[in-house]
Amino acid sequence: MKYAVIIYWSGSGNTQQMAVAVAEGARSVDVGVKLLPVSKATVQDVLTADAVALGCPAMGDEALEEEEMEPFVTDLEKEQLAGKPFVLFGSYDWGDGQWMLDWQERMKRKGVRLVDEGLILQNTPDEDGLAECRELGVRLASLVNRQ
Ligand SMILES: Cc1cc2nc3c(=O)[nH]c(=O)nc-3n(C[C@H](O)[C@H](O)[C@H](O)COP(=O)(O)O)c2cc1C
């Protein structure tokens, strides 16, 4: 079965809530869905997936979380990802979303197919935010079905 993988890091649970909602959306379409914290994910999970969602909040100074997500993304950058459908998402607080713009640039340089703009939500997602996450999951999973 074709499947989408959703891999996230979350310190205080906001990006995790987003990830769960992306997964809910993706499951509403008829594809397999794997939802994994980055600590349990491998590069292989990404390479074997038909579509990929990665979530990480703004950390450091507009950076990815440095212990787990940054090394994971660095490892991904060593792989052949051209054409693979991707979406990025994450929570932030006081910044202007620069971490997400930088992250998108990195992924674009690898030739991934960014299905949508990175979805950023301030702090804990509200109902509207969760609905946006579900919608993102639907769009990603719909693409898997059409491949
Ligand atoms: C160590 C640390 C660094 C952070 N750096 C930023 C930042 O550079 N820009 C920003 O907008 N928010 C920053 N934040 C706020 C987090 O992105 C925000 O609290 C987010 O909701 C956390 O998501 P999580 O619950 O998934 O961990 C930082 C938070 C922490 C704890």
UniProtKB/TrEMBL annotation:
<dbReference type="GO" id="GO:0016651">
    <property type="term" value="F:oxidoreductase activity, acting on NAD(P)H"/>
</dbReference>
<keyword id="KW-0249">Electron transport</keyword>
<dbReference type="InterPro" id="IPR001226">
    <property type="entry name" value="Flavodoxin_CS"/>
</dbReference>
<dbReference type="GO" id="GO:0010181">
    <property type="term" value="F:FMN binding"/>
</dbReference>
<comment type="function">
    <text>Low-potential electron donor to a number of redox enzymes.</text>
</comment>
<dbReference type="InterPro" id="IPR010087">
    <property type="entry name" value="Flav_short"/>
</dbReference>
<keyword id="KW-0813">Transport</keyword>
<keyword id="KW-0285">Flavoprotein</keyword>
<dbReference type="GO" id="GO:0009055">
    <property type="term" value="F:electron transfer activity"/>
</dbReference>
<keyword id="KW-0288">FMN</keyword>
<dbReference type="Pfam" id="PF00258">
    <property type="entry name" value="Flavodoxin_1"/>
</dbReference>
<feature type="domain" description="Flavodoxin-like">
    <location>
        <begin position="4"/>
        <end position="141"/>
    </location>
</feature>
<dbReference type="InterPro" id="IPR008254">
    <property type="entry name" value="Flavodoxin/NO_synth"/>
</dbReference>
<comment type="similarity">
    <text>Belongs to the flavodoxin family.</text>
</comment>
<dbReference type="InterPro" id="IPR029039">
    <property type="entry name" value="Flavoprotein-like_sf"/>
</dbReference>
<protein>
    <recommendedName>
        <fullName>Flavodoxin</fullName>
    </recommendedName>
</protein>
